[in-house]
Amino acid sequence: MMPLLHNYITVDTDMLLANSKHLEVIYNMCKKVLSVDAGEDAECHAAKLLEVIILQCRGRGIDQCIPLFVEAVLERLIRGVKTSELRTMCLQVVIAALYYNPALLIQTLDNMHFPHNPQPITAHFINQWINDTEFFLGLHDRKMCIIGLSLLMELPSRPAALERVAGHIIPSILLLFLGLKHLYESRLLNKPDLLARAGLQDQDQNEEIPSDEDEVNESQSLLQQQPNMAAGQGANEEEDDDDYWDEDCIEGTPLEEYSTPLDYDNGEDEYQFFTAALLRIQNSDAAWYQCLTAPLSNEQKKQLQEIYSVSQQRRSTAAKGH
What we know:
Layout: H1 2-11, H2 13-18, H3 20-35, H4 40-56, H5 66-78, H6 84-100, H7 102-110, H8 121-131, H9 138-153, H10 160-164, H11 166-188, H12 192-197, H13 212-222, H14 270-284, H15 286-293, H16 298-321
Helix pairs in contact: 1-4, 3-4, 3-5, 4-6, 5-6, 6-7, 6-9, 9-11, 9-14, 11-13, 14-15
């Protein structure tokens, strides 16, 4: 049923939105799956369907659906989730809502309360997201997470929970980009034209490709660095990144076959999205920019500069294509 529903949402979006009952039926089905003991695989598919709707209908006036979708996945998240797959999928629905309309999501979270959960839901969401960043695997999930974190750090009114994790935001984004770099290389290695569009043609094509499991292990190790670490006291800058990887090619997650507008060739560019957000913060709020970047080690600063370079290269390549 999932392929049929995905096809209906993405191919005939106008028909989906022509009658509010259509969305209501799909929501009720997903809500039921997330509310009963349907198994985490079925629950992952239900959450994915909600994410697809949000991303497909961005700018199409489904504001009334956002609180319902967000409540459904957060309620499931708070009940306790065994697998990282379902946990990140539930988080992704909320991240998609952040991308849909940041102000609407924050308002929704502020007005949301769950019994037996004393922690403010905004803080619960942000803390869970930062803790689980390394479990966002594959191309779409990492891209969604990077875009979401970029929006999060640029919120005009920052929740207190966001201030408390400021030193972890950019390190988390850097690890996501590290995974994306290897993923792009593994997928585009034999396609020079696509490799150029990805901004990676100057990378060493003999570099070993990491597995998602190894990336999680590295992420857990690097994220344990103290946020107040002085520059240069992080990981050994002479250490070769290849030590962390094996020769297995990275595969996408099973749910990535259900594409969204973010996954199209003309979709959001995560490199340009992140660097533009960080530059705006640097120019408009120097104190917050310092909070975000001060904990970075020299190696992390080097990686950040490489991301800026790839972003500029992608921008130039896109401009030449027009």
